[in-house]
Amino acid sequence: MGKLAITGGEPLRKTPFTQWPMATREEAAALEDVLTSSKWGGQPFPGKYADLFAKKFAEVHTAKYAQCVNTGTVAIQASLKAVGIRPGDEVIVPAYTWEGTVGPVLLINAVPVFVDVDPETYCLDAKLIEKAITPKTKAILPVHLGMRFADMDEILRIARKHNLKVIEDCAHAHGGMWKGKGAGSMGDLGAFSFQSSKLITSGEGGAVITNNLEYMELVQSYINAGRASLTDEYHHRIIGFNYRLGEFQAAVLGPQLDRLPKQAAIREQNMKHFETRLQNTPGIGLLKPDLRITRLAPYGYVFKYFADQVKDIARPSFVAALQLEGIPCDGLFYEPVYKSSLFPVDSADFPALSWGREKALDLRNAYSCPEADRAAYHEAVWLPHQHFLGGSADVDAIADAISKVLANIEELRGLDHKAIRNQKLGRADRES
Length: 432
What we know:
The chain is of the alpha/beta class and 432 residues long. 35% of the residues lie in helices and 13% in strands. A seven-stranded mixed sheet has the order 1-9-8-5-4-2-3, sandwiched between helices. The longest helix is centred in the middle third of the chain and has 26 residues, at 253-278. It is globular and about 70 Å long. It starts with 24 loop residues before the first helix and ends with a helix.
């Protein structure tokens, strides 16, 4: 019997962390109001709660307009349609992200072009973007990942130089700011998710924000079955679908937006304390801070695990041991999208992958992104944001568990194969 829980010892922590999502009387009152109003859906458009939330959400993110939609994936798809992405156009995307970032590109018969990530932030590496631009490139789709922003200064410079649109994937960035500007407000549009794990959640849901009225009108028509937008200044008429957010979902968003600043401050304080505990720990590395992030959106804490510094014990074993010490965490949180089992692209289903080519583009084998590979399969360890909503004792428990596993790392030798298999199975079942 070893000292680690995974080898028969006692787990360091036996009590759960803060539950997420949270429910308060404010959410209950809003849901009761919707229930008794008999106005449950998103039509008439927009619903009362969807409209109230959208206006405040736009303000928080320094944008003029916001529109609730039924998922974050739809938020990206509607944004792509609004900026005029057409079949065959190319959209630059990061290799290391959730598959739902890239799926909408294919669903409108455009072509995703994968670019590697910056090893200091795990976000789209702006230094590599221009090498990926072709005459067919029409947009850049950066993702603000974990606690970090993509380099919006450089991305916007490149976009202006090459006349490209920018759509920010802000699924991790609720309330975040870059040099005083809200996440999603710097590019042409910003797409947010309200899925269950997010900093604000309605179970499922999303929003699009923008400072461009024409884009907002196109988003509204697209997600409201093609109906004219609320302002209809540009008189666009397009084929649309019912991608509206229902009022039950919208009702629970307002109270969470009100709580977000206080929760963000708690998370940030606890994460800073956590970093003081991790500093100079052999085998552990931290993502690079960026002073241009003027308001943190701490969706999750991401740190690096260096197997070569701890007797070459692979990350899956480290993560499995940490989990059994009572610390929920994830290693294989994302994969390079084109390698993922959740991204089974058949070129016959997406004709643009064949246009102008002797042989259809094989996305699974057309790219090599070593930094995304390293993050996905070897380095990155993700801790959920709700772990940092408690007190310093919760943070110390995480740090103590990491120290315990590292101090007894030799006990994990020989467990790699089983740990890797379990993580892959867990990722296939996990909803993100």
